[in-house]
Structures are given as C-alpha cells and as structure tokens.
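Form 7-S
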Amino acid sequence: MKVHFLGTSSGSPSKTRNVSATGVSFCNTKQWVLVDCGEATQHRLLASELSLYHLEVICITHLHGDHCYGLPGLIASIAQSGRTRPVTLIAPNEVIEFVRATLSMTQVELDFDLKMQSLDTLPKTSAFDFCDIEVSALQHRVPSVAYKITEVKVPKKLKIEKLKSEGVETGAHYNALQKGLDAIYDGRKLLAIDYTYPSWCPRKVVICGDNEKPSLLKPVIADIDLLVHEATFTSFDLNKVGGHTGHSDAKRICEFAKAAGVKHLILTHFSVRYHGKGMLKPLEKEAKQYFDGELTFAKDGLVIAVPEISN
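Output:
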C-alpha cells in the first residue's frame, strides 16, 4: 500500500507545488483511489507511477476549488483512455453539479458509467472489492471530510499445523483455501475462514480535507498506520492571519497527533508563503517541537510506502 502526493499546496499552485491531490494504491491490484483533484492533477499523474486508466474511486473532501477544479479534465482524459469499467465519484452535491454541468457544456461523452455519490446521502462506510472507505466529518468554512481507506485484498496464509493435525494432506484444496475458497477433502467440507489467516493486518490510512479541529478525528484514528493532515500555517502566522480561515497550524495538529498516539503523521497543504528553498523551515521547526513520532513533510511526487505488520 502506498500514498502518492500529487499536490501539496494550499489555495493556489507555485513553481514547486501543485494544489491538493493524493493517491492511494494497493499491492495486489492496479485499482487505486484519488483523494481530491485540484487543477492540473492529471499533469502530476503523468510523472507518477499511477495509471489514470485504473483509477477506480475519486473522493473529494469539500467544495473549494483547489480540491476539485481538476475533475472535468481528468474525467475527460479517463474517457479518452479507453476505460469502460465504472468510476465512482464521491463528493459534495455542489461538486457533482459542477462536474455534470462542465461535462455537458463541453460535450464530453463517457464510455463508462460515472457513478456520482453525494456525501449527503453516502453511508458511513462504502465497500469496494479492493478497499473500504469510511467518511468522517471535519470542521472548515464549508463542510469538509476525512477519508479512512482500508485495504481488503490481503493475501492469506494457511494454518498448516492445524491442517496436518486434522489429517488434511496437501493437494489442490490447499491452493483453494489460500485463495479464500471453501474446499472438499475426503468427503468433508473445509471452510477457508477456519484454515487461513491474513498475511498482515489490513493497512489503514486517513487522508483529511481542510480542518481546523483535529480532535474530530478521535473516533477513526485509533488503529491507523498513517495520518495525512493539513498544516497550512505556523501557529504564529495563523494567529496573524486570523481564525476565519478554518485551517490548522503545525502546532495544533502535532499536539493532537502526539496525544492520540499517531504512528506516522504526514503534513501537507502548505500556504504558498512557505514554498521555495528553505522556506518550509518555520513549519518544520514548530512541528518537531510538538510531535516526536515519525513525521513527514509532504512534497509533490513523494511516495510513502505503508509497511506490512504481521499478525
């Protein structure tokens, strides 16, 4: 499982950072998930290992343009890639209306079903054949959410000692069980759930939209491997700009992450005032002062592998 940072800027792009977009890929499938799609996300994808053709689910955290303006162009490019399988778009109502209107007015024809699911009517958890996606409400100037993404295609290992102790010899039924299929041996039915276990614990990541209140994440982060959260400003700069922004500063999110026992915190969505050589140092200094766990400052093109933890 990998997290791909395609855009790490807040508000507008710069020479070094594009606006928000993050991909999540999985080791046993080419299918992947895109969280947010700022303008020119598809250009960033061209320099990544991700394939637009295999993009399965697009999740938009909120309606602000730096998180969704890239959608019409990206969807049009998917159409030109020869895609025929459905693509799911999870987004606020306003974003869905924006996509529908833009595609209609520019006469884009899709050869695949674009399944648009409004956050207003979406169940708390959506199950796909390669991952589960859980939605959690955040606090911003407009409704904003976090997406908890959990892998489900974890290879299975056989409980060899149990099979041997019950006199089940090797054969084709071993292969079936390992694939998660029930099998028949010597006239008895072997249930895959009884003779297999996951090779590792399903990996879980939370990727947040804009959020001024990290404590809202408490119900969903206890068992995660990695948290991606905005740190748009330092606390000094946020106080100077004003709390009306609806954003977090490095101090606020790092204090929360430390108290919550987050294993790995990745900060992103940096104001353009911190872009350029050496300009991120104030944010880095503040974050390291309040969080002593594994800490990463995202940059465009960064790919983070989420490690496997054995059961």
